[in-house]
Amino acid sequence: MKIRTMRHLIMGLLTGTGVFHLLVAFLNAAPGLGLPLAGFGFLFVVIGFFVRNDTNDGSKSHSRNAIIAAIAACSAGLILGGRAYFTNGHPPALILMFAIDIAVIVLGVMWLLKVAAKRRR
């Protein structure tokens, strides 16, 4: 998979899961999960915006810092959401959110490895 394709896929997944988090937070959140879901939803949409190619985030690749932030946010979402899911079991939509988080983490690591390999050439 091309570097650009991975970045666009990460951007789409982050934006999609951000909107999904916001929808679940406002429509179907278990008590106590609405605010954290809304916070993560907003965070994912913002990071998804900064993953774009033309965003100058101070890194040589223009997206590296945003990709690292996406990996960190998705990892935190998995840990905190997983704890909430195993404690409360609500809402069932968290399983799909976990799958998207895992996909973003895997794509982000692949993107970082490909950019590093391209830079070494």
Structure description:
The chain crosses the membrane at residues 9-27, 33-53, 65-86, 92-113. Keywords: Membrane, Transmembrane, Transmembrane helix. This protein is mainly α and 121 residues long. It has one domain (3-120): Up-down Bundle (Ferritin). The protein has 4 helices and no strands. Helix 1 runs antiparallel to helix 4, helix 2 packs antiparallel against helix 3 (64-88) and helix 3 runs antiparallel to helix 4 (94-120). The longest helix has 27 residues, at 94-120.
Give the rounded overall mean pLDDT: 84
Q: What is the CATH class designation?
A: Mainly Alpha
| Helical segment count | 4
Q: Look up the CATH topology.
A: Ferritin
Large-scale geometry: elongated
Compute the number of strand runs. 0
**Computed CA radius of gyration, to the nearest angstrom:** 15 Å
Helix content: over 70%
Oligomer: single chain
Number of domains: 1
Largest sheet: none
| Element string (H = helix, E = strand) | HHHH
Kindly, what is the distance between the CA atoms of the first and last residues, rounded to a whole number of angstroms?
A: 18 Å
Structural class: mainly alpha
Uncertain spans: none
Amount of beta strand: under 5%
CATH architecture: Up-down Bundle
